[in-house]
Design goal:
This protein has about 450 residues and is of the alpha+beta class. A hairpin with a 2-residue loop joins β1 (about 45-55) and β2. α4 packs across α5. It has three domains: about 1-40; about 40-180, 2-Layer Sandwich (Nucleotidyltransferase, domain 5); about 185-365, no CATH class. It has 14 helices and 14 strands. The chain starts with 8 loop residues before the first helix and ends with a helix. Helix content is about 35%, strand content about 25%. The chain has a 14-stranded mixed β-sheet with strand order 5-4-3-2-1-6-7-8-10-9-11-14-13-12, sandwiched between helices. Bound molecules: zinc ion (ZN) (2 copies). One zinc ion binds next to loops. It comes from Caenorhabditis remanei. This is F-box domain-containing protein. Keywords: Membrane, Transmembrane, Transmembrane helix.
């Protein structure tokens, strides 16, 4: 029998292709050959988040829907406390480890670099959750010196809507050829919805994006008429005063099939497009009309990340759940984007937290209830409300064994089997089973006997 070491490289590479992120990372440290194989096999990471705020650091690597590795670093008496969790927000599942005393930001960046700064790893979106005002970071020295000229292969770079200090670092953070888009994003929370119902985008020509587009995207939980009216006037002022803003777009995910429609206001022009995905209205000054129209015309779906059909499932899921971080990790809640006149932010966050807590409880109940139901019934239920079913998939795909074998960073999560209740088979199922089993057995018996005689 051939063992792993004697397998041809092609087969090994095939195996590596199917490994999850952490197993892949651990395999690098098994031998030189393995390391070479891993490094020559591409791996796509849908999203990475790096956060730093008030001495705390966050490294979060998403590998799929409800699949993530999360590390939170903070200073403690003995050194740096690392809290690690995987695919779950349950505080009971957090494992901890103490690293020797060192700078929290630098340690976080080193982990980020070691895990992700490699030409074999492509990051679809990298989000930097560093609020502008709080830290006194010397960005150039501290961030770039720690990364030590290593760059990430990032397609979409995401900053908080009000963070500007990171922008000059873009050419040093990303491999230029891979970089496609800068997004500065935020969440408007004045509405009752728990998922965004509208996106407001400003497209800006930006000196630091190496010619790539820059969007300022506000995901709104409020899609009411008053807020769209306020945006209309704000956009008009912005477009007339800031020549760098080429267009503003309001994207709503309610189907509205229609031909492109032009509306001229006194000093701006609106173009509205609509289809089965939703509708989107772009506003621009007359001088930019031709340029903007050229971008709008070929676009099939202008609803962007709110479109379940046109967006990849992970990106859709991620943005649908943006508000949920106020329940899961309220400390990292700096994405709130305030529109003057739309309620007090503090109170808004408090209300949102209450509503989210209620919603999570309801979800929990649903999960328990579905677990007790029969297999056949469960399928129908998941089909009916397929978005809520997403939460359930994670239970099945919870994989084990991706330990973190790094020498200087050995944070093994003990995989504890969750109290998985196996759904009890229904009476019809067991009836069928007991009915068919004897027939099956006798058929096999018949096969064996007939082979013996003929
Ligand atoms: Zn669409
Ligand atoms: Zn490592």
């Amino acid at each position: 029998m051939r063992d792993w070491n004697h397998l041809p490289v092609e087969i090994k590479r095939h195996v590596v292709k199917n490994l999850d992120f952490m197993s892949r990372h651990s395999m690098k440290s098994t031998s030189h050959v393995e390391r070479l194989i891993v490094n020559s096999t591409c791996f796509k990471v849908p999203r990475v988040r790096f956060g730093y705020k008030q001495g705390k650091c966050l490294v979060m690597i998403y590998t799929g829907i409800e699949k993530f590795l999360r590390l939170e670093l903070s200073k403690c008496k003995e050194g740096i406390l690392v809290e690690r969790s995987e695919n779950t927000w349950d505080p009971r599942d957090i494992t901890t480890k103490i690293l020797p005393p060192s700078d929290v930001l630098k340690t976080g960046l080193t982990i980020l670099k070691n895990l992700l700064a490699h030409e074999s790893i492509i990051i679809e979106a990298m989000e930097w959750d560093i609020p502008d005002e709080s830290p006194k970071i010397k960005y150039r020295q501290e961030i770039l010196a720690t990364l030590d000229n290593e760059k990430f292969r990032v397609r979409e770079l995401v900053f908080l809507w009000n963070t500007v200090v990171l922008e000059p670092l873009i050419p040093n953070l990303c491999v230029v050829d891979d970089f496609k888009l800068l997004r500065r994003f935020g969440l408007e929370i004045s509405g009752d919805s728990l998922v965004p119902v509208m996106i407001h985008d400003s497209q800006v020509e930006h000196p630091w994006t190496l010619g790539r587009p820059c969007y300022q995207s506000m995901f709104c939980l409020n899609g009411s008429l008053p807020i769209t009216l306020v945006m209309h006037f704000q956009d008009r002022d912005l477009l007339l005063s800031d020549p760098k803003t080429i267009a503003t777009v309001l994207r709503v995910a309610s189907p509205l099939p229609q031909k492109p429609d032009r509306q001229a206001h006194s000093d701006t022009i609106n173009w509205t497009y609509g289809n089965e995905c939703g509708y989107w209205t772009a506003k621009m000054i007359p001088a930019n009309e031709a340029k903007v129209k050229k971008m709008l015309d070929p676009e099939k779906c202008g609803v962007h990340y709110q479109c379940k059909n046109c967006t990849d499932p992970f990106t859709f899921w991620y943005h649908q759940n943006l508000a949920r971080r106020f329940h899961q990790e309220p400390f990292w809640g700096d994405i709130v984007w305030q529109i003057p006149g739309f309620g007090d932010v503090e109170m808004g966050i408090r209300n949102l937290k209450i509503e989210l807590a209620k919603d999570e409880k309801k979800k929990e109940k649903m999960k328990k209830w579905e677990k007790e139901k029969s297999w056949g019934f469960k399928e129908i239920l998941v089909e009916k409300c397929d978005f809520k079913g997403l939460g359930q998939e994670s239970e099945e795909v919870k994989d084990s064994g991706d330990a973190f074998y790094d020498k200087n960073f050995d944070i093994d999560a003990e995989e504890q089997p969750e109290n998985m209740t196996i759904p009890s088979p229904t009476s019809t199922f067991s009836l069928k089973f007991f009915f068919i089993l004897p027939i099956l057995l006798s058929f096999m018996f018949y096969l064996i006997i007939s082979h013996l005689y003929y």
